[in-house]
Write a structure and sequence with these properties.
This protein is an all-alpha fold. The protein is about 80% helix and about 0% strand. It is built from four helices and no strands. It has helices spanning about 5-20, 25-55, 60-75, 80-105. Helix 2 (about 25-55) packs antiparallel against helix 3 (about 60-75), helix 2 (about 25-55) packs across helix 4 and helix 3 packs antiparallel against helix 4 (about 80-105). The longest helix is centred in the middle third of the chain and has 29 residues, at about 25-55. It is elongated, with a radius of gyration of 19 Å.
Length: about 110
């Protein structure tokens, strides 16, 4: 099959990778993990963009990033949706813990007299 246009080539390559990721249980879990990395990158991008604009970052960024990641996982396999959600929840917990740790170190401690 010959592909003439660039957008068809991109679609063909993504279809081939989709078939590979859905071929076994391990690759299906890997597809969910990859989608959770999309969640992490989108969450970072949205959070940084909102902070640049001076808007407070909240749960809206998490919901949008999770929706896009789950949508990407749904194109591979149904099980990828579940593994993406679970991996994303773990990543969100770890990012929150890291953020709290860094903020507690940067805030000066109040002096007690």
């Amino acid at each position: 099959m010959r592909v003439c246009r660039c957008d068809n080539g991109v679609a063909l390559v993504s279809w081939l990778e989709q078939a590979k990721l859905a071929s076994s249980e391990l690759f299906t879990i890997l597809g969910g993990f990859t989608s959770s990395l999309i969640f992490l990158l989108l969450l970072t991008f949205i959070g940084n963009y909102q902070e640049t604009l001076g808007i407070k970052t909240g749960w809206g960024a998490v919901i949008v990033a999770e929706a896009v990641a789950v949508l990407a996982a749904s194109t591979v396999h149904r099980v990828c949706i579940t593994t993406c959600f679970l991996f994303s929840a773990v990543l969100l917990y770890e990012v929150n813990k890291l953020s709290e740790m860094l903020l507690s170190k940067s805030e000066p401690k109040a002096k007690r007299f």
